[in-house]
Amino acid sequence: MSFKNKVVWITGASSGIGRELAVQLKKAGAKLILSSRKREKLYELKQSLKTDLINTHILPLDLEDKANLASKAAEAIKIYGKIDFLFNCGGISQRSLGLDTLPEIEEKIFDTNYWGTVLLSKYVIPQMIENGGGSIVVISSVVGKFGTMFRTSYSASKHALHGYFESLRYEVEDKGIQISIVCPGFINTEITKNSVMGNGTLYDKMDQNQLNGIPVQECVQKILTAVKKGKKEIIIARKEKWAVLLKRLSPSYLHKVLKKRAVV
């Protein structure tokens, strides 16, 4: 599989994994559609890519705005006449105890992380099937495989993505649709800084684990290699990857470990 001349739509493209995907996919010769809420950041990214600006399109959208996602998907498809790859990178993290998190903030997290990703994929897949196939890439998290403190709604939204897209895969893979779920651990991005607290305000500081995490360039290289190989689940982590194994083999022991650490 090659990304050259393929149409790639990336949500959450203004920062972190989404931004680095745009950089590496442009180098691979892809035709890009870049989306996020931050229009100015998207245009800055486009200018930084420099080469082949004609085949780099900006499509601002808010994943939380469910009512407008169908029209945004139609607009994205219209740009090149098709979409070959949808990288669902947009999302929001959390740093608050479940009992201290307002219901409207929990709804915001779910609308952004779960419903935004599910709806865009549902609107794009029929067109992919008509064109002979395509690929949906879902950026989840290792906490989509197990829960931990201060991530109640975030972890739940990622668990929900696994349930939905693992089920959907059975329904569409014979129609040429590849679905890859990516589970990053600590990656050196600003996801922690952009997390919301229980009242909706920004956490606005970097977690030391995030600062010491896997470089985003390395993470994206691993994602693209795995997607080209058709991998169904991709775990990109250091020692936190063992928590995924412990969850399956000894959940009671994992509980003790995580409770001592308080934060993953």
UniProtKB/TrEMBL annotation:
Record-linked SUPFAM superfamilies: NAD(P)-binding Rossmann-fold domains (SSF51735)
Alphabetic keyword roster: Oxidoreductase
Signal peptide start-end: none
InterPro entries, A to Z: NAD(P)-bd_dom_sf, Sc_DH/Rdtase_CS, SDR_fam
A Pfam family annotated for this UniProt entry: adh_short
Gene3D superfamilies: NAD(P)-binding Rossmann-like Domain (3.40.50.720)
Family, per entry: Belongs to the short-chain dehydrogenases/reductases (SDR) family.
Record protein name field: SDR family oxidoreductase
Organism: Pseudopedobacter beijingensis
Source lineage: Bacteria, Pseudomonadati, Bacteroidota, Sphingobacteriia, Sphingobacteriales
